[in-house]
């Protein structure tokens, strides 16, 4: 119950606990698994402290119980479960070739983003600070930088991927439903880093919008909807 007020602060357009795509949903499951593992270990430590103060003389478990059972067995069981979940999720969110996969580009610079994406007729269209993708369809984002290291991150759609100068990185994103999703650079890159935000507009493939640059304002400065 103590966690409920704390988790309420994790809501918002940049929350990983409000997944809106397959990859983000997998990452959210991993987050909850790691939280459960951390809570189990914390409970075990608190139980040991309580046991140390409350046990009766001459009625204590032996070293085998504490060292092999609780110290090694329990801790390694939790660690193996969490690492296994991480490997399982990491494998499932890898981009793989497919006939329905769309390829777009995200190019970072100090301090903004521009995107290249196919329009409704297949022609490549360049936009600033807003990436257009069809909802319900996997999209591979080729990420690079024109100067220093940045990071492409849309928490509700996928994990984070670095944008490196001279190197292309690939990240799979997908939105379950049409909507506007917020992204940011998650890598400090200088004094303008905090304003390096962008948007991903997932549109209905049957009703594509005009691909235009947004009248962009920082999500934190917008009035509540």
UniProtKB/TrEMBL annotation:
The keyword Heme does not apply. GO terms for molecular function: copper ion binding; cytochrome-c oxidase activity. GO terms for cellular component: membrane. GO terms for biological process: ATP synthesis coupled electron transport. Residues 99-214 form the Cytochrome oxidase subunit II copper A binding domain. The chain crosses the membrane at residues 35-53, 65-89. It catalyses: 4 Fe(II)-[cytochrome c] + O2 + 8 H(+)(in) = 4 Fe(III)-[cytochrome c] + 2 H2O + 4 H(+)(out). It is found in: Membrane. Keywords: Membrane, Transmembrane, Transmembrane helix. Belongs to the cytochrome c oxidase subunit 2 family. This is Cytochrome c oxidase subunit 2.
């Amino acid at each position: 119950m103590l966690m409920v007020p704390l988790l309420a602060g994790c809501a918002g357009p940049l929350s990983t606990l409000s997944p809106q795509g397959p990859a983000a949903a997998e990452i959210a499951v991993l987050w909850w698994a790691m939280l459960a593992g951390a809570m189990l270990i914390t409970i075990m430590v608190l139980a040991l402290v309580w046991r140390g103060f409350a046990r009766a003389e001459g009625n204590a478990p032996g070293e085998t119980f504490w060292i092999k059972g609780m110290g090694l067995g329990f801790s390694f069981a939790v660690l193996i479960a969490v690492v296994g979940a991480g490997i399982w999720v990491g494998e499932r969110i890898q981009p793989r070739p497919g006939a329905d996969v769309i390829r777009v580009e995200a190019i970072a610079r100090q301090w903004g983003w521009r995107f290249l994406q196919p329009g409704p007729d297949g022609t490549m269209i360049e936009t600033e600070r807003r990436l257009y993708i069809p909802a319900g369809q996997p999209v591979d984002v080729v990420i690079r930088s024109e100067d220093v290291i940045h990071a492409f991150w849309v928490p509700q759609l996928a994990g984070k991927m670095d944008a490196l100068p001279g190197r292309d990185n690939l990240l799979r994103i997908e939105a379950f439903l049409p909507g506007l999703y917020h992204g940011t650079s998650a890598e400090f890159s200088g004094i303008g880093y905090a304003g390096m935000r962008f948007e991903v507009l997932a549109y209905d493939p049957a009703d594509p919008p005009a691909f235009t640059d947004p009248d962009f304002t920082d999500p934190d400065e917008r009035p509540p909807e």
